[in-house]
Structures are given as structure tokens and as C-alpha cells.
Amino acid sequence: MEKILVTYASKMGSTKEIAGVVGRVLRESGLDLDVRDVRHVGLIDDYDAVVLGTAVYAGRWRPEARQFVRAHRAELIARPVFLFESGWVGPAPRDRRPTAGGRRHAATVGASAPRVFGGRLDPALATGFADRLLAARMPGDARDWDNVETWAVGVAAAVRRHRGTQVRGGQ
Ligand SMILES: Cc1cc2nc3c(=O)[nH]c(=O)nc-3n(C[C@H](O)[C@H](O)[C@H](O)COP(=O)(O)O)c2cc1C
Predict the structure, then answer these.
(1) CATH of the domain at 165
(2) Ligand 1 atom, smallest distance to 55 CA
(3) pLDDT surpassing 70 at residue 170
(4) pLDDT band at residue 171 using 50, 70 and 90 as cut-offs
(5) Fewer Cβ neighbours under 10 Å: the N or C end of the chain?
(6) So what's the pLDDT on residue 51?
(7) Structural domain tally of the chain?
(8) How far is the CA of 106 from the centre of ligand 1 (A)?
(9) What stretches pass through the bilayer (predicted)?
(10) What CA–CA distances, in Å, run from 13 to 20, 92, 119, 128, 135?
(11) How far is the CA of 119 from the centre of ligand 1 (A)?
């Protein structure tokens, strides 16, 4: 059976929750998977596909997500990879383009550009001066769960399509 890795880089927990919903949808569609903090992922050889989600801070991916892509580039190129970023809060921006770094990382592993989801800022969960300041100024939760679920359904379909090509290719 296909095994999927859903991994996330999250500082204040919001991206972790998005990864949890993605994992639930994939599981409900019959796929076997692990949902793991990217800092706790070892070898990825046993996974047939990888979903990586990261929070965006100051226009960049979390460092552990960048490190993951650098460390596993060869293995990631060899399997389907699905990326998402989570960031903005407040009203949805008109331009929901992924970060330049995210597009670059996607290209290095042969993945589509990251899907961009809204994020959350909660003063109660923020640690450190800058995070607390920003969270106090613009608290909010812009995560659209329907959007996340729809994306995850598409990921499940793509994983199955890939499996189909692998099975046919192996005959
Ligand atoms: C100091 C700081 C800088 C941020 N910079 C960005 C940014 O450049 N772009 C963006 O989309 N979101 C930015 N955000 C919003 C976070 O990405 C958002 O709160 C996200 O949901 C946090 O995810 P996490 O809870 O998984 O850490 C920033 C948040 C903080 C606290």
C-alpha cells in the first residue's frame, strides 16, 4: 500500500493544524500516512509521496523546511511532492503567490509551486518580541478549511494517478 509523509514546519501551531487536516483527508480517502514535524523526519525512502507545509515568516519558509528540502533533494525528486505555505492573516490578499523561495524550492524537487493558505496570529500562542508584537497588532485566523480540504482531495487524486502510472509502468 502507498505510504504518504505529511510533514510540516510550524512555529506557533497553525501550520501543524493545517497538516493535520490534510492528513485526515488523505486518510479518509484510504491512503496510509504519517503526519510528522519536519524536525523529526529521518529517512523518507519508505514513503511514496511527500506533502510538505511550512509557515512563512518575513517572506521566507521556516528554516527547518528549507533544511528538509536541501537534505532530501534526491529522494524528493524521485517521488511526487506537494507543497503548501501558510501565512497571511486578515482579508485574503488579491495576490496569493507563493514566496520566491518556495517557488525555487519547488523547482529544485520537480514539484508544482506551493499552494498558499491563510494563517493564524494569536497573541496567546506567540513567543518572542516580534511575534508577540505582530500577533497583538493583527490577531486573526485566515485559514479556510474548505480550501484546505479541497486541496487535500486533489493531492489524494494525484497520488492515486501516480500509483496508476507506476503499476502500469511496472507491468
Ligand atoms: C514575525 C512574523 C512575521 C511574519 N511574516 C509573514 C510573511 O512574511 N508572510 C506571510 O504570509 N505571513 C507572515 N507571518 C504570518 C505567519 O506566517 C502566520 O501567523 C502563520 O499562520 C504562522 O504559522 P505557524 O503557527 O505554523 O507558525 C508572520 C508572522 C510573524 C509573527
Answers:
(1) 3.40.50.360
(2) 23
(3) no
(4) very low
(5) C
(6) 98
(7) 1
(8) 20
(9) none
(10) 11, 20, 10, 15, 13
(11) 7
